[in-house]
């Protein structure tokens, strides 16, 4: 059994910017956790799946994506899950919420279920400083980033399946919307 999750990954020009911010947190605040995954917006939290059946999972995701249309995504300002996580906030639009809810429902129909999603609201975000950020460094970093401006918009036209290789998360497959 391997670990996977499903996410939206922004276009390269946004990836480059966000990766620079993540590297800044690694260098200045010793928060390296966000380096273990490409910048992303999680739609389906990590789950286990038998590697022998990966083709079946990919077929399911192809089927799901083929019935979707692109979703507008806006990255706006910085946010935090105090006292350890700093992220770029993603505007929670009805289209994005619907995509996430539909995916969760679809995944549940094929046996993938995360009980936390029933009790926690969907808070779309792109993590730049992970839980390895100390509380002391969080306070200093949050003062630096709390009012910093960031604004990007893109049309999400696919979802990505990421696989954990034992050290980091990597994009395994992309599933194009119609």
Automatic annotation (TrEMBL):
<dbReference type="Pfam" id="PF13563">
    <property type="entry name" value="2_5_RNA_ligase2"/>
</dbReference>
<dbReference type="InterPro" id="IPR009097">
    <property type="entry name" value="Cyclic_Pdiesterase"/>
</dbReference>
<keyword id="KW-0436">Ligase</keyword>
<protein>
    <submittedName>
        <fullName>2'-5' RNA ligase</fullName>
    </submittedName>
</protein>
<dbReference type="InterPro" id="IPR050580">
    <property type="entry name" value="2H_phosphoesterase_YjcG-like"/>
</dbReference>
<dbReference type="GO" id="GO:0016874">
    <property type="term" value="F:ligase activity"/>
</dbReference>
């Amino acid at each position: 059994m391997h670990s996977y999750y499903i996410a939206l990954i922004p276009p390269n020009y946004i990836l480059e910017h966000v990766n620079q911010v993540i590297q800044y947190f690694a260098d200045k605040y010793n928060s390296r956790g966000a380096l273990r995954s490409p910048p992303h917006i999680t739609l389906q939290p990590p789950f286990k799946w038998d590697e022998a059946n990966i083709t079946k999972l990919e077929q399911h995701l192809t089927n799901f994506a083929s019935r979707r249309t692109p979703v507008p995504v806006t990255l706006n300002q910085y946010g935090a899950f105090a006292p350890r996580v700093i992220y770029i906030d993603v505007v929670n639009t009805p289209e994005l919420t619907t995509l996430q809810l539909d995916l969760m429902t679809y995944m549940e129909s094929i046996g993938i279920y995360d009980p936390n999603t029933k009790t926690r609201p969907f808070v779309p975000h792109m993590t730049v400083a992970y839980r390895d950020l100390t509380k002391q460094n969080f306070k200093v970093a949050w003062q630096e980033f709390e009012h910093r401006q960031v604004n990007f918009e893109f049309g999400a036209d696919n979802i990505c399946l990421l696989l954990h290789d034992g050290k980091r998360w990597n994009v395994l497959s992309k599933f194009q919307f119609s």
